Amino acid sequence: MKTRATLTCMLFVALAGCLDGYGTGTGAPTATSPDPQSLRGDALPTGAVSFFKKLACPEGWKPYEPAVGRTIVAASETLPSGEVVGEPLSSQEEREHSHALGASVEIPAVSYVGAPGGGNSGVGQAGAVSFATTSEPASADTPYVQLLACKKHEESVPRPTPLPSRMLMFFDLEKCPEGWKPAEGTAGRLLVGLPKDAPADQTFGGDPFTSPELRSHGHAFSSAVETPSHGIGLAGGCCGGGYAMQGTYEFASMTEPSEVDIPMLVLLQCEKE
Asked: Where is the signal peptide (predicted)?
């Protein structure tokens, strides 16, 4: 039996080698690559920043404090990564703002036969009527959802299935990692989910953010002043003049600009090649 086993080994050694206690025929274990599916971690590069719909960051990620209470906007040449805009929101805070406003309306004059004064009290004076006030504070009704912001701090783990091309990701890095390039068309703009049947990559709204200054806006408004009638024991004519004419007088103006504080963090945004 021993001779037969030795002969069998000699016949097959040129093809495969003989098995030993390790199943290798060499007396030592063979180094094999680990199954990628058994590795812990993910394929995203170190420095990636993303939001998660969970209470704790996944393995290899940690909470990203600079994004607490802020939305993230893509950096540009004039709005560098790391800049912050406004004050961070507290939990479920609706940031309010108000406007200063004022206007003037011209009330025409009417004259009466007789001398002004005497018993003709209670009548209004013609001329410009002005006012100035401040609106009540109100929410801008900016729609938000609170999510956990995390940053990848461990190295990427290669996976059999590559990350999809044209995927967008924020990075807390000076430049895009290998295999990624700066995103086009998103610099200085807030990202909005694509509505149904809508074209992608369409910009709208105001100009992109180019500085960390808050964006201000104003409102047009209009109203009217009504001067009621008032009994006077005089006929219309000369020479009691300067009284306000009965009527309704419309006016329109613009509020003073006011800032809507949308707290933002500016970060480098990259696109997967």
From this structure: 1-21
Answering whether pTM is above 0.70, one says no
Does some domain include residue 248? yes
Rounded to 5°, the CA angle 243-244-250 comes to: 165
Q: Is 233 within the bounds of a domain? A: yes
Asked if the structure places residue 134 within a domain, the reply is yes
Four-point Cα dihedral 25, 29, 34, 39, nearest 10: 150
Tokens of residue 76, six digits: 């540009």
CA Rg, the chain, in Å?
38
**Which range marks the domain in which residue 128 is found?**
96-116+123-140+215-254
- Residue 236 sits at φ, ψ, to 5 deg, of -70, 140
**What are the beta bridge partners of residue 170?**
49, 269
Distance in Å from the first CA to the final CA of the chain: 63
Residue 224 lies in a domain: yes
What pLDDT, in 10s, does the model give residues 146-183? 999 999 999 999 888 999 999 999 999 999 999 999 99
